[in-house]
Amino acid sequence: MDLKNLIKRQKMMTTVLTALCPLVIASVFFYGWRTIAVQLVVMLSAILAEYAFLYKEKKPVTEAVLVTSVLYTLTLPPSIPFWIAVVGIVFGVVFAKMAFGGFSKNVFNPALVARAFVYVCFPNYMTIRWTQASAGFPGGLTKWLNPMVEAITTATPLIRYRSEGTLTELSSLLLGNIGGVMGETSKVLILLGGGYLIYKKVAAWQIMVACLIGFVGTGSLLSLVTGSIAMESVLYGVVSGGFLFGAAFMATDPISASSTKEGKWIYGIIVGMVTFIIRGFSLFAEGMMFAILIGNTFVPLIDELVKMKNNKKKAQKKGAVANG
After folding, report:
1. What residues contact residue 197 under an 8 Å CB cut-off, 6+ apart?
2. Could you list the residue ranges that cross the membrane (predicted)?
3. Which of 39, 89, 145, 252 could form a disulfide with 32 if both were Cys (CB 3.0 to 4.6 A apart)?
4. Which helix (H) or strand (E) holds 221?
5. From CA 94, how far away is CA 77, in angstroms rounded?
């Protein structure tokens, strides 16, 4: 195959990559140039994994695999070993995408399947080893990788809150100079990227809003019923961890998300509800990853029920017109 035709360009995927670029650059500033090295290694591995399934048919690799690579890498800690990052992306591409028939046929988000795999198989690297974030210029632009943190007080905001009940300053959460994974720290850049996707009509704003409604609504209800959950912690949860990143870039994946109008709201609310429940009542500090994968599971059923309901309404309307 001609090298120029190795990757099939997809306008929608190009838009998503554009929205992710600021987060990639921010990861370098906060943690060091190693983040770019991980991105490149993961991207090459993903391309080779997909190409292995397509080369006999002489079909090009889709640009979607680049989006999967970037999204997956941005959910990893900066210090993740290269071989673990590679194992994850290969698993995600092979078993969550190509095993289902390739692009547009996958049920689950491949990037999240990849992350879930390494999260379960290599928990020490995904939940304990964190890198100190840079606060001022030039940040990590002059470093390969910032120093590792040793105390729980300098770990991620969610881990700090779960272990000590300490709330990280809102300014730090918005700017991103906090410990965490490569692309989920700067909430300002995430919101800008999500807004850009909405502006370009690539991501469904209904899903993003529904995720927020599901999360805040569940937290508010439990706060009123049990009295053990403070509303402050509910609102804090929105700007902590990977909630906003997942709502803007992962839950809105057009392939694994709901495609019907009503289904988008139902799907998003499920994701938000499950995220809060996992965070509040499980051993996991985070929950967005598992919530989206659970939501993906229900998408076919949700869309089918919505279509059946709409078809029934159309049939009743036609019957009323015929009888009238």
Report:
1. 15, 16, 19, 203, 248, 249, 252
2. 12-30, 82-100, 202-222, 234-252, 264-282
3. 145
4. helix 205-226
5. 22
* pLDDT tier, 139 (very low <50, low <70, confident <90, very high otherwise): confident
pLDDT band at residue 179 under the 50/70/90 scheme: confident
| Of 41, 13, 31, 12, nearest in space to 183 by CA | 31
β partners of residue 61: 7
Name beta bridge partners: 7: 61
DSSP SS3 for 148:
strand
Nearest CA to 288 among 27, 75, 96?
A: 75
CA angle 159, 164, 167 (to 5 degrees): 75
Q: Mean pLDDT over residues 67-82, rounded?
A: 96
Neighbouring-strand partners of residue 8: 62
Helix and strand tally (H, E) in the chain? 14, 2
Please name the residue that has the structure tokens 């080369």.
55
Question: Phi-psi category of 229—alpha, beta or left, where left has phi over 0 and alpha has psi -120 to 50?
Answer: beta
Report the predicted TM-score, pTM, of the whole model to 2 decimal places: 0.91
